[in-house]
Amino acid sequence: MKVGTKSILFGAHQFLIHPLFVALAWWKLYGFPWDVRLWVALIVHDWGYWGSPDMDGTEGEQHTKFGARICGHLFGPEWRDFCLYHSRFAAVRDGKRFSRLCVADKLSIVLEPAWLYLPRVRLSGEIHEYMALADSRTAAGEPKYASMKLCTNSERRWFADVQEYLRRWVNEHRDGKVDTWTPNIKANAAGGR
User: Fold this and answer.
1) What's the average pLDDT block by block, 10 residues per block, for the chain (193 residues)?
2) Is 148 within the bounds of a domain?
3) Based on the structure, what is the number of domains in the chain?
4) Which positions ≥6 away from 152 have C-beta within 8 Å?
């Protein structure tokens, strides 16, 4: 079974737990999510990880498109983009603004306790990819990870560092402020650092 599928079934993006934490984050940021369209987006936004061999590689980075197609088909282009740009990297890559779903999605990680998150990412195997990429890409000076300053010696410390970085990102961007923190990895990959 591929890591993306494991993530949805019992990992970081578990199909019940993750959407509930995103809903809780939305409630804290913007008020209770009354709109049915919002609940659909909360549920399907990460379904694109299904069948993905990686979480943060070439295929994993495309995960936003599947949920976006569902939301676009059901509710139109505004909701497609709302779901598509829950990834700050997708938004920067496409020259668009991140959606409020992006802010809630990042805050959801901050709200989730380590005792619930870490066993799931260990079971799915995601933790190995996340920490290895953080280590190797930080060492290589890749801007996607270098600015995050993640500890990779301890899973608990790594998660605490991720939470702290995302807490600061959410506090800075919760009102839709232009994202100057997130590098354009497509341009960087093409040598446009």
Assistant:
1) 97 98 98 97 98 91 96 98 94 93 98 98 93 72 66 88 94 89 59 31
2) yes
3) 1
4) 131, 132, 134, 135, 138, 158
In a domain, 188, yes or no: no
CA distances from 18 to 110, 113, 148, 150 (A): 12, 12, 22, 22
Residue 122 lies in a domain: yes
Could you list the residue range(s) of the whole structural domain that residue 61 is in?
3-182
φ/ψ region of 62 (left if φ > 0, alpha if ψ in -120 to 50, else beta) reads alpha
> Could you tell me the pTM of the whole model?
0.89
Structural domain includes residue 35: yes
DSSP string, 71-120: HHHHH-HHHHHHHHTTSHHHHHHHT-PPPHHHHHHHHHHHHS-HHHHHHH
